[in-house]
Amino acid sequence: MEKKRFMEVTNIEEIGEGMRVCLDFIDVLHPSDGLYVGNTGHGYVKVLAENRESKGYPARPFRINVGAFHQYIHQENHTGYLHEWSAGDEVTVTDETRERTIAIGRVKMEKRPFLRVECSDGERVISATLQKSTSVYVVEEQRGHHPLVELSVGDHILVLPDEPGRHLGEKIDEIIVEK
Predict the structure, then answer these.
(1) Helix, coil or strand: residue 115
(2) Does the pTM of the predicted model rise above 0.85?
(3) 144 Cβ contact partners less than 8 Å away, ≥ 6 residues apart
(4) From CA 111, how far away is CA 18, in angstroms rounded?
(5) Burial, 152: exposed, middle or buried (Cβ in 10 Å; 0-12, 13-18, 19+)?
(6) Is-contact 89 103, C-beta < 8 A?
């Protein structure tokens, strides 16, 4: 797997309502804490903790709104679907320089509107389906912590590229096409 880096946002589109997942942790999250989530094994977008006030939302220093429940969440050398996580499961959360493992206290799913965000480096596309909300933040190269709803095509956001080909969360050597 490659190292995290910034990739250019090439498409942002509203794709309707669906079930979003919030992971509520049993410890305080820092503003730079987040998780990498994505639609495919090609890579993942870093989504930050909801521990800042935003228009219409109070700070929730225990929560990461990780988006649509079909997505992968990246954990060290494996992935898992968001809908598979439960209270009591331990998740590795990352900030700019460190990782720490925290137990989930609650998984909250609700129907919400979504944006599909696609990034590209010219060779691959990394995408994530995230709730269209002022409380959802990503890491933008020039502006740092940045609200998803203010993201534009041409911005560069933090991603974790990966190689597609997963079975039950483990990397396999097989031809798998994901779009």
Answers:
(1) strand
(2) yes
(3) none
(4) 5
(5) exposed
(6) yes
Both tokens of 164, joined, read 């597609």
Give the contacts of 123 (CB within 8 A, at least 6 positions apart).
none
Could you tell me which of 57, 45, 49, 47 has the C-alpha nearest to residue 29?
A: 49
Mean pLDDT by 10 residues, the chain (179 residues): 89 97 97 96 95 86 96 89 94 92 97 98 95 97 97 98 62 58
- Residue 142, token pair as written in the block: 């020039």
Measured over the CA atoms of residue 153, residue 154, residue 158 and residue 162, the dihedral's sign is positive
> 10 Å Cβ neighbour count for 141?
14
Q: Is 57 exposed, middle or buried (0-12, 13-18, 19+ CB in 10 A)?
A: middle
Report how far residue 123's alpha carbon sits from residue 116's, in angstroms, rounded to the nearest whole number: 19
